[in-house]
Amino acid sequence: MDSPSRDEPDRNQQGRDQHGRDQRDRVYAGTYDCVARFGLAKTTVDDMARASGVSRATVYRMFPGGRDQIMRETVGWEMNRFFARLAAEVEDAPDLATRLERGLAFARRSLLGHEVLQKVLATEPDALLPLMTIEQHRVLRYITGYLAPLLEAERAEGRLRDGVDVEVAADYVARMLLSLIGSPGHWDLGDPAAVRDLVGRELLGGILSPRGDK
Predict the structure, then answer these.
(1) Is the fold of 1-64 the same as that of 71-207?
(2) 212 — alpha (psi -120 to 50), left (phi > 0) or beta?
């Protein structure tokens, strides 16, 4: 009989890791469905386990922090899905400015149309907002990391102003994006002309050279 290959333990470990990720995603999806039906306060770990098809004991093994950890990570999971949809929406944009213009309009429209989010914000804002604040720091790092290579590409095309620090600029734009998506103030993100003006003057005015300049 052939002996196991050297790679077999690695494949087995990869299989176990993938199974664990799949189970966590099932718990997140089940928790999301429960929150949609019952709200944050009334959703229990038993509800989460039942909706996800994962045993209660397994749920507690995966989430030793219990209900609070599951809720926090589910909010992060849904935020990840939101920004993945956003990235897909703008992936074919020809430049950073166009990407931001499209992204802001899409993100605001999606946020307003997110039934579960709007329901919980209307009924349980005090429970949801702290969870979103915690996850926002991780999302900020993600957006900053997404923007940095795009800014480097702008530099390569000669569109970045002299002396701009890409990391600082990426952090600034990421923070502005998060703020505007959640609370645009007097800016109408449904008006393409207003969004173009916002991106050109407020987000990128001190970062990119004026369009047409090199």
Answers:
(1) no
(2) left
Mapping DSSP onto H, E and C, the string for 76-100 reads: HHHHHHHHHHHHHHHCCCCCHHHHH
Domain assignments of the chain as residue spans, ordered by start:
1-64, 71-207
204's CB contacts (< 8 A; 6+ apart) are: 96, 97, 100, 173
Torsion of CA 45, 48, 50, 55, to 10 degrees: -70
Burial group, residue 7, by CB count within 10 angstroms (0-12, 13-18, 19+): exposed
pTM assigned to the model: 0.76
Digit-coded pLDDT (tens) for 67-101 = 999 999 999 899 888 888 998 999 999 999 999 99
Q: What is the CATH number of domain 1-64?
A: 1.10.10.60
- Fold designation for 71-207: Tetracycline Repressor; domain 2 (1.10.357)
Report which secondary-structure segment, H or E, holds 8.
helix 8-38
Of 118 and 102, the one with more pLDDT: 102
Q: In this predicted model, what pLDDT tens digit does every residue of 120-161 receive, in sequence order?
A: 888 888 888 888 887 888 889 989 999 999 999 999 999 999
